[in-house]
Amino acid sequence: MSNICSKELQKEIIKLKENKNAVILAHNYQISEIQEVADFIGDSLELAREATKTDADIIVFCGVDFMAETAAILNPDKKIIVPSIDARCPMAAQLPAELVRDVKTKNPDVPFVIYVNSYASAKAEADVCCTSANVVKVVERLDSDVVFLGPDANLAWFAECRTGKRVIPVPSNGFCYVHKAFKVEHVEEMRKKHPDAVIIVHPECDPEVQKKADYIGSTSQMLKLARESDYEKIIVGTEIGLIERMRREIPEKTFIPLYKAVCKEMKLNTLESLLIALKFESNVVKLPEEVAERARKAIKRMVDIL
Ligand code: 13P
Ligand code: SF4
Fold first, then answer.
1. Are 99 and 44 members of one domain?
2. Are residues 162 and 197 in the same domain?
3. Which ligand is nearest to the CA of 174?
4. Contact predicate 94/151, CB 8 Å
5. What is the pLDDT of residue 4?
6. Which of 28, 124, 159, 186 has its CA 20 to 30 A from that of 116?
7. Is 165 in the same domain as 186?
8. Which of 45-59, 74-88, 206-220, 278-292 has the lowest mean pLDDT?
C-alpha cells in the first residue's frame, strides 16, 4: 500500500513516462509501489517478450541486470534504462563466459542451455537460452539426450526430472541465495499448520523442497495457478514481491509466504531512483555490439522455438 509521499512520486513518474513515450517493465519481485506504476509486470520470459513488442522510445526496466541486458539485446535501437545499476543478480556471476567456452570446447556436440539469469557475455558462448517458465520445453526440443545447463543447479535438476534427459549443471553447485533459504522444515511446518493449503515453489528451490511441494513453476506460472485454480489458500515459496502482487490482484484468496524471502538486489530499485533515472535518462544499459549479437542468437532461439 502506498503512502502519500509515494503517491506523489508515482504521479510524477506516470506524467514523465507519458511525456517521454517511455514504458515501465517490472519483474514480479519489485516493490509494490513500482509494480503499481508499471505498464507491464511479469516473469523473465514475459518481460523478454514484452520488450520486443513495445513501440516506446525508452524502456525503464525494473528488475535486475540480466533482465535489462536481455531487453537491450532484443532492442538495439531503444534506450534501456534502469533505476539502480547496483541491482545485479548474484547468481549470474557464478557462470563466467570462460567456463561456458571451456565446456563447449571440450564437448562440442553437447548443447549448452543457459539460464536467462546470466551475463550477456556468457549467453554469447551458449547455444540457447531458457527461463524457469520454458526450461522443460527448451531441453525437450533439443536434439540431444544430454545437455549442459547453468548457472542454477536446482533448475538443472528440475529439467532433468521433467524431461528424463541428462541435464548436467555448470557449475555443479550454482544457486540463488534467496531460494536456497527455503528448507524442508518450512514445508513440513506449514503442512502441519495449514493442512487445507496447497504449497507452490519456484524451481530455484532445493530438490528436497521441490519434492515436497504440490506445484513447481516460474513466478508468473505460480500467479496463473493462483488466479485460475480453485485453491483458496496458497503457500508460496518464492520472493515476497510475488506474494504482494498476488494479494493485491487476487484479494479474495489467502496467500502465505513459505518463509519471508527477500531478494536484496531486486529491492535496490525504489520510486526515487526510478524517477531520477527516467528524468535524467541515466543508467543506460549498453552492451558491446559483438557480445550483444552473439547473445541475441541464444535468446532469439529461445523466443522463436516457443
Ligand atoms: P522468474 O523468471 O520465474 O520470474 O524468475 C526470475 C528469478 O530471478 C527467480 O529468482
Ligand atoms: Fe537472482 Fe535469486 Fe534475486 Fe532471482 S531472486 S534475481 S535468482 S538473487
1. no
2. no
3. 2
4. yes
5. 61
6. 186
7. no
8. 45-59
State which residues form the domain around 270.
Answer: 3-87+266-286
CA–CA dist 266, 26 (Å, integer): 10
* 62 CA from centroid of ligand 1 (Å): 13
For residue 189, list its beta bridge partners.
Answer: none
CATH code at 217?
A: 3.40.50.10800
Kind and range of the H or E element at 277? helix 271-280
The helix (run of H) or strand (run of E) holding residue 168 is strand 166-169
pTM greater than 0.90? yes
Measure the CA–CA gap between 33 and 23, rounded to whole angstroms: 16
Question: With a 6 A CB cut-off, is 219 part of the ligand 1 pocket?
Answer: yes
Distance 109 CA to ligand 2 centre (A): 30
d(CA 253, CA 232): 5
Residue 37 grid coordinates: 506504476
Which residue(s) pair with 58 in the sheet?
22, 79
Q: Is the CB of 218 under 6 A from ligand 1?
A: yes
Closest CA to 287 of 88, 124, 59: 124
> Which residue's alpha carbon is at the smallest distance from atom 8 of ligand 1?
117
How far is the first Cα of the chain from the last one, in angstroms, to the nearest whole number? 36
For ligand 2, residues with CB inside 6 Å are 64, 89-91, 117, 176, 178, 239, 263, 265-266
Q: Tell me whether residue 221 is in a domain.
A: yes
Determine whether the shortest distance from the Cβ of 47 to ligand 1 is under 6 A: no
Domain count of the fold of the chain = 3
Q: What is the pLDDT of residue 42?
A: 96
Query: Which residue among 265, 267, 268 has the greatest number of ligand 2 atoms within 8 angstroms of its CB, and so is best to mutate?
Result: 265
Ligand 2 pocket: which of 44, 62, 64, 259 to mutate (most atoms <8 Å of CB)?
64
Q: Are residues 62 and 107 in the same domain?
A: no
